[in-house]
């Protein structure tokens, strides 16, 4: 493994067309690249800059027909196509051709997909692997690492198309808005990742691994909002005592929701959990999830 | 004027279909009303509860074809109609029939239109009149009052359809999200307004007016984002030192924007201003405005 080079990296923004930091960052990097085009061929790492869902970006919506970041399962990528195939499914195949094909030797080495959330989550890396030494060793800036425990076949997000990949998720930022501090944090995060790739390729990274630890959160439970049984409208909001407290321990009987008539609903589980994606905008419609609660575990970096 | 009764009041939510506090509040009030329907006829004040733009609410978008809250000028309300008339123009006429007609004796006495903003504006009342004693006397909770200085003929928002009217604007709340604290503040604000209407109608309000003052902000200037001359994309975000500082004095040479390449752009005007609607999501597309800066004036309440 130590002979591996990360020679092809993709940085993607606008996979969700209303998550603005990544969109403006990719556009800015494209503009900067245009200026220094003549230097490009000398670089040992090829960085592809991708605006993933240009139609949704143009309309400043999460997606046009369906969530692009759920379209990268093997089943969806290889399913039948017709005149009525949703735009994002067509686009997922274009991206799979450009960055993959998923699971093939031709896929790019690393996909970094830029996202924002309305939740107060700071800077998080989200990946399907909790033993992918490339992703785990990357950060030496304060951040959290979130692990989605599904197989590569079932993995559904754009970053699963590369040989390695992760989503860089930063919040809080309202969708449709860019906050300068969030944009700047993302810019620094991407620069850090690219610097790390250069270090890695030069072979100078390995000596310090044995003592590095990373906090990893693995999903154990999802909560939905209380909903009206007829209309399916939510009937409560995240409780003010829980709002903005992502990654803070939620204990049994702690407030979870406040109904629109003012009643407090409490967490009835028996185990304490670390909630996150608290009040993420996109999860209102996903019916089955709103707060995703995880265990925290200190994780020794593999070397 | 003292013999006036405010016997017909309208509380409207969802004029913008992604401003969630007002939407859930109107739905909650409708639900509560259903439960106590039998008491309804005894009340001296008729409160109409209106979901202004149901299609946009259903899609959780600001609007379908065009901004409903710009459709209530006399010109738009009386313009020609055809098969291609935008949905919101059709809907504005329905609302004008229901709550107006604007400028007529048949119009409701007071329209309270509920809005949210991504800006850190707290609770604001926005109205076209700075000498409308009904609106100005209402608050005895901490809030700010914003005055749009245009004639009734040019006034374009839903609240202009009533004999009196104002928008209740609360933030910060991301569009598409409901924050419990913002919802609760709005619920208290509406209850306060309805209590005030009852007091007013009972004739017990007037004795305390002479000593009341209200801070009023009147528009003097609008700023647009710096934009790319070809694409019209914004090229800078609100500066981190200005972000969230609505109603805080902006001095000449204070930072205004930070470009996506990191440069600080400063306020070049000669007069200090009180900016607000700082980084309001909806103003990215409106090209000509983003930060609306106002003078503050202490305002003696008319009696």
Automatic annotation (TrEMBL), chains A, B:
Catalytic-site annotation from UniProt: 169 (proton donor/acceptor)
Cofactor(s) this protein requires: Zn(2+)
The entry's Zn(2+)-binding residues are 16, 19, 115
One GO molecular-function entry? metal ion binding
Q: Which Pfam families match?
A: AstE_AspA_cat (PF24827), AstE_AspA_hybrid (PF04952)
Q: Where is the Succinylglutamate desuccinylase/Aspartoacylase catalytic domain?
A: 7-195
Subcellular localization, as worded in the UniProt entry: Apical cell membrane; Cytoplasm
Per UniProt, what is the membrane topology? Peripheral membrane protein
Q: Does the keyword Zinc apply?
A: yes
What does the note under cofactor report? Binds 1 zinc ion per subunit.
Per its record, the protein catalyses: an N-acetyl-L-cysteine-S-conjugate + H2O = an S-substituted L-cysteine + acetate; an N-acyl-aromatic L-alpha-amino acid + H2O = an aromatic L-alpha-amino acid + a carboxylate
Q: What is its main location?
A: membrane
The record's EC number reads: 3.5.1.114
Tell me the keywords, alphabetical order. Cell membrane, Cytoplasm, Hydrolase, Membrane, Metal-binding, Zinc
Tell me which residues make up the AstE/AspA barrel-sandwich hybrid domain: 214-291
Source organism's superkingdom? Eukaryota
Name the InterPro entries on file: AspA/AstE_fam (IPR050178), Aspartoacylase (IPR016708), AstE_AspA_cat (IPR055438), Aste_AspA_hybrid_dom (IPR007036)
A single Gene Ontology CC annotation of this entry is: apical plasma membrane
Q: Which family does it belong to?
A: Belongs to the AspA/AstE family. Aspartoacylase subfamily.
Q: Which PANTHER family match?
A: ASPARTOACYLASE (PTHR15162), N-ACYL-AROMATIC-L-AMINO ACID AMIDOHYDROLASE (CARBOXYLATE-FORMING) (PTHR15162:SF5)
Name of the featured protein: N-acyl-aromatic-L-amino acid amidohydrolase
- UniProt organism field: Anabas testudineus (Climbing perch)
Q: Which gene encodes it?
A: ACY3
